[in-house]
Amino acid sequence: MDEPALTLSALEKQMVLDRDKLQSIIDGFIVAYHHGLTNDDTTMIPSYVSRLPTGAETGTYLSLDLGGTSLRVAAVTLLGDGKADIEQKSYVIPAELKVGHAEKLLDWVALGVKELMSCLGIQVEIINEKEMYMGVTFSFPIRQTDINRGLVMKMGKGFQLTGLEGQDITELLQAAFERQGIKIHISAIVNDSVGTFVANAYKDQNTIVSVVLSTGTNASCICQTSSISKHNFPLDSPEYMLVNTEWGIMGMDFLPRTKYDKILDLQSIKPGFQPFEKMVSGYYLGELVRLAMVDYVKNFGLFDGVLPSGLEIPYNFTTKHMSDIGSDKSPEYNVILKIFTKDYNKSPSLDDRRTIHELVVRFSRRSAQLSAAAIASLIKLQCPDFPAVERDIRVAVDGSLYHRFHKYSSWMNKTFREIQRIKEDKRTKIVPVEDGGCMGAAITAMMYSH
């Protein structure tokens, strides 16, 4: 990649997403959605979730949420009136389980489920006497063949596993449960964005879009089953179905990529795969800033032209670093000084700190703006007259980027209002969802347990 280095002002011009650029991105996504519905098996994947909760349902169901960095297992008790209690345990996925044979990872997952049961005082013998229903949120692409069946597709987020791609995730998990001596019936497999959709729909039936912004990114929406023409659904199929967009895969032909986006893609495990995810998600944001810093050391004298120790290592500058830096209100950027002194054995000058801060703001703000444009495109797919719609619309958003990254949600909401060309819209709202994957999986398990 031999593109010239860009000064901060030149990079800013390249990364600014004005109204015309945002509209071009929205239009590009809509074309990609229609292509996915008609021709592409890797996007716009039918979820087989064709019913939504009313909020009146009750009962206790299990859920499992396997994401890019963590595993969560939960027992969800639906209380009715859109309310629920959740008991859960979370685990960070060890790096050694992201490579090698998938059986090691799945056995570790099953142990986590068994530990939750033990903590809740439910013995394995009791589980075996009464079959427990579980919903599984699998935060990676799967080619769904039924509500509780799906073949694992190419994985991102740094996973390189054998024995998983092309296999039915339900069969693999059920086998892992059996190896641990627990009897659980998986009645639903959902993607994280589908789970988030169902979780919010339990509280608000005006939900039409769900989004996950975390280690990775994805979204789901409602589509007419007949519009998913790449599949030959029976004539008596339900009229509507939730669709897992896998929008992270989209965008190679319409997203405005910088030099650093292209370098990151070429150096990634799977070049050309998930261009939108590589510009937006938490897994990649820190690496984009690291690549820019390396370039600025070489071409603009950042750190006096000497790369700090450790900054040469890919992915060794994290999105958590970025969020901490963004939240620092001190005029001397003391958080940057603390991070670089501690993690890279370097005490950057005030000018260096200003440059680092500007790079962090530019890439994180662009991520939020791209997310807002993608959300607008999914609303427009379902409501072609958007933003001139005469109905209540809820967009459910879950994920650490949205919830915990400093200013991310405000940047995203501001851009969304700019796309709508209004200061405030009380009918169309972006609403936060916590534990959407776990909650939605359990609710879906309830709906399909009989």
Descriptive notes:
It is a single chain. With 450 residues, the protein is of the alpha/beta class. The chain has a domain of 167 residues: Nucleotidyltransferase, domain 5, CATH 3.30.420. The chain contains 15 helices and 15 strands. It is globular, with a radius of gyration of 22 Å. The termini are far apart.
Please tag this protein with its features:
450 residues; alpha/beta; Nucleotidyltransferase, domain 5; six-stranded mixed beta sheet; five-stranded mixed beta sheet; 15 helices; 42% helix; globular
Q: How are the SSEs ordered, and which strands pair?
A:
Elements: H1 8-15, H2 19-38, E1 45-46, E2 58-66, E3 70-80, E4 83-92, E5 99-101, H3 102-119, H4 124-129, E6 132-138, E7 142-146, E8 149-152, E9 160-162, H5 169-179, E10 184-190, H6 192-201, E11 207-213, E12 217-224, E13 240-244, H7 259-267, H8 275-280, H9 282-300, H10 319-326, H11 334-344, H12 350-382, E14 393-398, H13 400-404, H14 408-420, E15 428-432, H15 436-447
Parallel strand pairs: 2-6, 5-9, 6-10, 11-14, 14-15
Antiparallel strand pairs: 1-13, 2-3, 3-4, 7-8, 11-12, 12-13
Helix pairs in contact: 2-12, 3-5, 6-15, 7-9, 9-10, 9-12, 10-12, 12-14
Keywords: ATP-binding, Glycolysis, Kinase, Nucleotide-binding, Transferase
InterPro entries: ATPase_NBD (IPR043129), Hexokinase (IPR001312), Hexokinase_C (IPR022673), Hexokinase_N (IPR022672)
Domain Hexokinase C-terminal: 209-447
TL;DR?
Helices cover 42% and strands 20% of the residues. The protein has helices at 8-15, 19-38, 102-119, 124-129, 169-179, 192-201, 259-267, 275-280, 282-300, 319-326, 334-344, 350-382, 400-404, 408-420, 436-447; strands at 45-46, 58-66, 70-80, 83-92, 99-101, 132-138, 142-146, 149-152, 160-162, 184-190, 207-213, 217-224, 240-244, 393-398, 428-432. Strand 3 and strand 4 (83-92) form a beta hairpin.
